[in-house]
Structure formats: structure tokens, C-alpha cells
Amino acid sequence: MQKSLQTFQFKENETIASVGASSGVWEIWFASQVDNLTFYIQDIDEQNCNQEEIDYGVQYYEKLLKKKINGKFIPIIGTQKKTNLPQNTFDKVLIINSLHEFSSPSLILRDILNILKKDGILFIEEVIGMSVGEIHEGCGKRLFTKEELSKLLTQIGFEVIETFSKNNNNNVFVFKCSLGNMIN
């Protein structure tokens, strides 16, 4: 998580959406490291993405770290085709190890164009397939290759700013909205 925290470069008072975030375990930890972040924790799974689960996570980290977490966490239930997040709101949007699980990734990514602020940044942290058709060991879903991921995002209206390698085949891709494709 520390390497991701360094890559995401959160600043106090930012508003961040995390798409496919389940109960927000990573996001709660990030907020324990940077004060006054607002996280919209988005997922399609109501059993994990709810205030009770988020509150439990906050209590867990506060006890573990022996400090109060000064973040705000808002659960949002989306669908396979729409995030249900407010438009033109987010400084940063995170997709952490979940893009390959989306049934309609292009629809979700188009939606993200609308929810980012004009100068907002999209971070996609994904295990990358070394060959076309490689399967994720944990979930059994097909992984993107670097080329497939870059092509998909470019077609939708994003441009790659940077790519970071975390370990093995796990990478963080940093995107911004292409100037010619601004939706906001």
C-alpha cells in the first residue's frame, strides 16, 4: 500500500473516487496517512460497500494505528454500466485491481470522464497480462496486456501520463483526459 500511496500523491482536502473498492480497506488506510481526504467508495456489491463495513474498517485502522482517521467516506452503489458517482467532482479516481473484473469496462471508463474534474487524474492499478488471454489467478478473469489497456483508454479519451511498476506484473497507470475529448 505504501508504494501506491507514494504514486497517488494525495493532498489534504482532495476528493477521490475509488471504483470497484469493495468496503474501502485501502482507501481507509490512505486516509490514515493523509488528513482530510474525502473518499467515495464505489462498488456494485451492497454487502461490502456500505456504511457499516466502512465504519468497521475505520475502527480497525484507528485501533491498529492508535490514531484518529480524519477522512470522510461515502459509499456509492453502482451498476455494471454506471458508477452512479456525481459528475465533475473528483480530483482523482482510483481503480485498484478491479478493471479486469468489470463486465463493461469501456462504459465505466466513459463515465469516469464525466466524474473527473477538468484537471482530474485517473489511476489504474492492475496486474498486467504478459500475453493476450492470460487469466488472473485470484478471480479467473482475463487480464489486460499493457497494449490493450493503453488502446482502450486512448479510444475513450484518456492519455497516458506515466506508468509505474510496483512488482511482478502489477503496474499503476496514470491518465488524464485528452484535451480534444473533454466532456466536462
Automatic annotation (TrEMBL):
GO terms for molecular function: methyltransferase activity. This is Methyltransferase family protein. Pfam families: Methyltransf_23. GO terms for biological process: methylation. InterPro entries: SAM-dependent_MTases_sf. Keywords: Methyltransferase, Transferase. SUPFAM superfamilies: S-adenosyl-L-methionine-dependent methyltransferases. It comes from the Bacteria.
